[in-house]
């Protein structure tokens, strides 16, 4: 078992912090000064270290390059109203990483290793956590196979890494989405519930086709009948139909979103009627036609709450009412932000202070 008290730290001599302009942070382009690495060899995690952010080298026969034996997580750190660095529900990400790991024949990352490495990395790079509303430090833990072998078999060597980078909004305006009824993101028995790199690779082509038609993203439907809504782009998706908050249940094909769980928990506490049950495309389309589809929005770590402006289905485009201060999506975003900044009581114990 790795001793997490012995993480080796090599500090950078050339900080790039002056590249951070809080007024202009694009998503996913700027990375903090340091990164965490641990290697899995001979059946155990070892050599935990924090080093300056830099390229890594792998063999051209690296199994991940060929067979996508890679999983990841996404979580965020915020600066609260007292200037402290806090992370939102990191233990939930540690647990989900290991659910993905099992499906992809990747060894478990002990929660203690996940939490200690995250904590030490954020202590070192705390100046990279922005404070402007709508900004955060995105944290990307990932694990991938390191075998030098182009045969197919579960790998024996792996690497666990964490990189971080300040981010602003993922979507800068409400999104236009298309209900996809030809391509599929996931199937029963497949890897849809895992945060596996290949799921995202396979989503690019259908999403690109939709983008050529003027859409920002897709709403995925089930792989068998295409009659039921699953996810939207990289997010879970929710609807307010009449006064009920509706979302698909997480099953083998849908990612168990941590933002999704947070939204549903708060909505239930607020006394809203929440229905976690299959959502038929026909119900959403009919509700839109009849003016009963009050809101639709994506929920995810990167995008937080992303209101949907219009939904395309077959040849029709259904516009949704613009969100305002009374919209559920707006209220829930304010609530989540309040919990993160400490302005609203952390009544669920979701905040982890660095
Ligand atoms: C996240 O919300 O953390 C994601 O995984 C989205 C990412 C693919 C940008």
Question: Would you mind describing this structure in some detail?
Answer:
The protein is α+β, with helices and mostly antiparallel strands. The chain has two domains: 4-167, D-amino Acid Aminotransferase, Chain A, domain 1; 175-341, Alpha-Beta Barrel (D-amino Acid Aminotransferase, Chain A, domain 2), CATH 3.20.10.10. The chain is 24% helix and 30% strand. The strands form two sheets. Strands 1, 2, 3, 4, 5, 6, 7, 8 and 18 form a nine-stranded mixed β-sheet that branches. Strands 9-10-11-12-15-16 form a six-stranded mixed barrel, surrounded by four helices. It is globular, with a radius of gyration of 21 Å. The two termini are 24 Å apart. 2-OXO-4-methylpentanoic acid (COI) binds next to loops. 2-OXO-4-methylpentanoic acid binds at residues 74, 200, 234, 300-302.
Number of domains: 2
Approximate helicity band: 10-25%
Count of alpha and pi helical runs: 7
**Mean of residue pLDDT?**
95
CATH class of the largest domain: Alpha Beta
**Proportion of residues in extended strands:** 25-35%
Order of helices and strands: EEEHEEEHHEEEHEEEEHEHEEEHE
First-last Cα distance: 24 Å
Short overview:
Helix content is 24%, strand content 30%. It has helices at residues 63-67, 90-103, 111-124, 197-212, 258-269, 281-289, 328-341, and strands at 8-9, 34-41, 44-52, 70-72, 75-79, 85-88, 136-145, 158-167, 175-179, 217-221, 229-232, 235-241, 244-247, 273-276, 293-300, 304-313, 316-319, 351-353.
